[in-house]
């Protein structure tokens, strides 16, 4: 993303995990070293921000003008699974790219299925080989998962084994099959992963297939005592459509710590990403993998986060005066949530339907447009403190984040509102009976003089949410000029837990500045 950037790396993870004390210390050292961007491809769980070491470290970095991007997590596709949701952190989900690594599975009944694989060793024979379901080759109640020691060697020797995905690592299942004398493996998704395909560097000829293909293969292997199969590896395929789609593993909103901040912020490439790889472990990352490679292809929001970090470095170089919030705003308001030319929303591979802002935030990053966003939503450190006050944080809790004296807390003479945080997206809360919610925002002109007109709409299912923006026109005569507006969201009653989505867009002759809307009835 930023090929001329200098990279400093701070080790915080060990065999036993990534400890909060190491993470926070590394962030402090990086700030002292003078970095411009902090990229954290780690996280786990959620906690109030004053107890979240990453949020604490990121607040100090933000105060110094350092952009902080973090992985949303790989706990999707369930709702409310993301971590790193503090509003001073840019939270990144994962999408696919238009490159794939097909591995075709042909069964003895003539049926063909497309899977994926990064296996590059000796191929299987072209003639059909015996095919067996792992659940029929084990004395274990969980034998279908190909857990360590669960397969009976006499039943799998020389055969292609069908293993169900889940519980242990995908590549680990290949080790189990290989150790039992199996010749190859088909790794079948279950309902938890659906049709999402993630290519792996298997240690034996192996292909990962979707849930539907896996179900068909399982039925065949269990019904035909002489079942056979072959696997053919087709290398690299480009131009895959549709792309991007949201990865099923990408963690989703809403933000469980502060629901008034819509998360994730954005998605970026995070599936089958090619990058340099350590020579100290094999491409699977597992003990016992003796292979060594200079580059590897892996997937996760740990891959999407550094894409955004690199883009932030480019924007910092192009606009050194921009704050971390301005950089995030530029990335978010220029992101796309529809496929070029088609008008169809970016798909979620977990559902097969268009993704929502709780899946993608503002959408997929668009680097070229982010350099010239027209308007930005800026936020200063003091604004975040006001937001914490609006969330009823106590003085000592705020001090844990700001490192200021606990007496410098919230003023009893001020009224604080979570809806006043100048975020580039809108998270709207309605009571079950419905009502009206008002949000205020201020935009700063970072482009040429011009007049912007607003268009906004939202709906829950087929029921519209009334969105009124005052004023509906903003005119700017110079760079750096600020204009404020108020948005009123009005809706009728809906069952608790209902979600609605929409978009608010300011447009001029030269720029489109878009913000996602997510509404929830509580």
UniProtKB/TrEMBL annotation:
Q: Does the keyword Hydrolase apply?
A: yes
Please give the name of this protein.
Answer: Subtilisin-like protease SBT1.7
Domain Subtilisin-like protease fibronectin type-III residues, every copy: 421-518
Q: Does the keyword Signal apply?
A: yes
Q: Which organism is it from?
A: Zea mays
Which UniProt keywords are present, listed alphabetically? Answer: Glycoprotein, Hydrolase, Protease, Serine protease, Signal
Q: Which family does it belong to?
A: Belongs to the peptidase S8 family.
Q: Where is the Peptidase S8/S53 domain?
A: 1-339
**All residue ranges annotated as the PA domain in the record:** 150-216
Short name of any one Pfam family annotated for the protein: fn3_6
GO terms for biological process, alphabetical = proteolysis
* Parts forming coiled coils: none
